[in-house]
Amino acid sequence: MKLKPSPFAPASFPALPAIKGVQAATASRGFYAKRGIERDDVFLFLMPEGTSVAGVFTRSHTASADVEWCREALLQGKGSGRAVVVNAGNSNAFTGVAGVQKNEATLTAMVETLGVPKEQCFLAATGVIGEPLPDPAYVGKMLPQLNAALGTPDWEACARAFSTTDTYPKGAGTETEIDGVPVAITGILKGSGMIMPNMATMLCYVFTDAAIAPDVLDELLREVVDPTLNSVTVDGDTSTSDTCMLFATGSSGAPLIEDGSDPRLDAFREALYDVFRNLAHQLVKDGEGATKFVEICVENAVTAQSAKTIGLSIANSPLVKTAIAAGDANWGRIVMAVGKSLEPIVRDNMRIWFGDLLIAEGGLRAPGYDEAAASAHFAQDHISIRVDVAAGDEAWTVWTCDLTHAYVDINGAYRT
Amino acid sequence: MKLKPSPFAPASFPALPAIKGVQAATASRGFYAKRGIERDDVFLFLMPEGTSVAGVFTRSHTASADVEWCREALLQGKGSGRAVVVNAGNSNAFTGVAGVQKNEATLTAMVETLGVPKEQCFLAATGVIGEPLPDPAYVGKMLPQLNAALGTPDWEACARAFSTTDTYPKGAGTETEIDGVPVAITGILKGSGMIMPNMATMLCYVFTDAAIAPDVLDELLREVVDPTLNSVTVDGDTSTSDTCMLFATGSSGAPLIEDGSDPRLDAFREALYDVFRNLAHQLVKDGEGATKFVEICVENAVTAQSAKTIGLSIANSPLVKTAIAAGDANWGRIVMAVGKSLEPIVRDNMRIWFGDLLIAEGGLRAPGYDEAAASAHFAQDHISIRVDVAAGDEAWTVWTCDLTHAYVDINGAYRT
């Protein structure tokens, strides 16, 4: 089906910094072309020797063969990464031995064509789950063509090449410095359904030319992913293929950072967080059928995890999401979603705000409650919900979108 | 909004057995009448002295004032129950002190009008959460009128009087015997959204004229609720008001059962289970926007709880539910939902069936997979999904419905 672009789709893809040392190429193996869609369906990134890599993956117990390989490669390669190949159209999840064969064929082609060690090659795939693979070599055989096309990354083309139901290509980047040396960070990401990351979300690749030791890079990635990609949800369904990888080429000339507490990392850490948050927000804004962007802050929970659990309980509630879609300020459903989380709260001291508007306090509707003002807030396309659960002093913020007719349509027709 | 009846709505309300000792009445306090809907909105049941009662309630941490009172009354009254009053239109949840005042006013009216002890009076309410109450006496003042109208229960009228977005009144009953003496069981229940019971579901009242001691009745209720009402989900949203109560009047003349292992209870136990399962199925069939009834059996899990968790993960997945709505046999989403449950499974030994059709085995699509046959199964209005997770030998069955446009519509317009 032809998807209507998200109302949040930007007028154009952002200008993103080049990352010294990173080359890329895209190509078409015909998956989208056959469907009359003008879009490549596979990309390759190649990084120089000495590039550090960190990755976080779905916690799903039915993880794809690609995710299993990446975990293995990170161990074998001790955090060195040279290349990544990603294809859209088939997730290579629940494909049995054939899925492993496709990976081996792709890896062999990468080693032979690019001259890089196998354990420094990474894979991912996105599309229908359980669909048999046409031919184990169907991605590997693209390698010569991809290799020949390698050059400065066209981030937009790459972001398009791993899209599925995404309605716009998603990228973010920034420039910062380490010890006075300019370094850049650029990332691309795809959504758009089966999104409630439980470690990372769908597919996200971020690159920097900073020089960062693998264990520090891993620490940084886990640190930024938790309050960003791991704090968004579209539909509460965790993918079999969630993959988020961070590559550091070291080509900027900035000094190598080997200690996570090194103060020279402060600005970089903040810049990295900004890029991840930007990507996470784009993910939600292009959630399947999304018409509204919703920020949910839970305050005064007993732990940060408890605040997050409550936030996700609200964010995943179909009743809350359909009320938001309709612009109906049915705040009682937020109360329901807090309650069903089974997290510690003090019901009769709870407070709820929409934006700056106090909606409930002392365990009931606020005395100054104004239905017209509450509805006006819910009529906006950016909605802010704040809930004080009055049980402790920890907070967490999650982001989600609404649940609309378009979600039902898109997901009834995905395989057709 | 005017709701379209569920395609599963029966042509007429079933004929249900009378329960010796039970009287009932319904009345209108004007909630539906004001909206042009011909429906009473409050009911009263009155039982004779010596009636045993058991109840299970929502586990929500934002439970309604009515639920809190019922828990208290069960303790104070030591399992004796004489009367229950339920109203639709306002859930009395998150209503603060006013909610308690409404309960006290209703209980005072019940004590004065019916001449029964306060701790043997039970309450429930259903409707919008957090809506302030018009007047603490708004239910209590109906008691004289209800008392005057008491008579043999009109089960259908009672089932209509506590409906909200239900599109048909739901009841079930059966006759059995204890020690050769005929006894009857009849129950009514309402749905239809905010349904993923975590103890009981929404509002359900079941009556029998058997004579059963309170602790045995409590044991029986917990035993039958778990594989029935606690095994259905419409939208994964647990209500603040879930209440399920079982009254045993003892008026049948059957001997008093004081031990749960008494073999004279065998037929009754089975009959009770049948009534609860019937009601649970009706709940799903009238789930908001439902067009399909889905049974999900999870087999060979490590524990029954694990099987249930996996079953509910499938049943609550918006991607599975929208695929079912569209009749798209996208079985890979079942794999996803099994994986995201994080329960122990052996991915590469998993098997999936639709009805008798083997869809997947050995961790991938079955060799004989037939897309046309799979789609034909998904095109039916009764869908059976069976998943062998190959990790143990415990099983559980859950029931759900599909996620359709109508769910989005109903829940965008509920308060209007």
TrEMBL record, chains A, B:
Q: Which EC number(s) are documented for this chain?
A: 2.3.1.35, 2.3.1.1
Q: What's the catalysed reaction?
A: L-glutamate + acetyl-CoA = N-acetyl-L-glutamate + CoA + H(+); N(2)-acetyl-L-ornithine + L-glutamate = N-acetyl-L-glutamate + L-ornithine
Subunit details for this protein?
Answer: Heterotetramer of two alpha and two beta chains.
Instruction: List the residue(s) that the UniProt entry marks as the site Involved in the stabilization of negative charge on the oxyanion by the formation of the oxyanion hole.
Output: T126, G127
Gene that encodes it: argJ
Residues of the site described as Cleavage: A200, T201
Pathway of action: Amino-acid biosynthesis; L-arginine biosynthesis; L-ornithine and N-acetyl-L-glutamate from L-glutamate and N(2)-acetyl-L-ornithine (cyclic): step 1/1; Amino-acid biosynthesis; L-arginine biosynthesis; N(2)-acetyl-L-ornithine from L-glutamate: step 1/4
Q: Which residues form the active site?
A: T201
Indicate the enzyme's highest-level EC class: transferase
Query: In which residues is substrate bound?
Result: T164, K190, T201, E288, N411, T416
Q: Which CDD domains match?
A: OAT (cd02152)
Per its database record, what is this protein's job?
Catalyzes two activities which are involved in the cyclic version of arginine biosynthesis: the synthesis of N-acetylglutamate from glutamate and acetyl-CoA as the acetyl donor, and of ornithine by transacetylation between N(2)-acetylornithine and glutamate.
Q: What is its main location?
A: cytoplasm
Q: Where in the cell is it found?
A: Cytoplasm
Keywords (A to Z) from UniProt: Acyltransferase, Amino-acid biosynthesis, Arginine biosynthesis, Autocatalytic cleavage, Cytoplasm, Multifunctional enzyme, Transferase
Q: What does the similarity note say?
A: Belongs to the ArgJ family.
Which one Pfam family would you cite for this protein?
ArgJ
| The protein, known as | Arginine biosynthesis bifunctional protein ArgJ
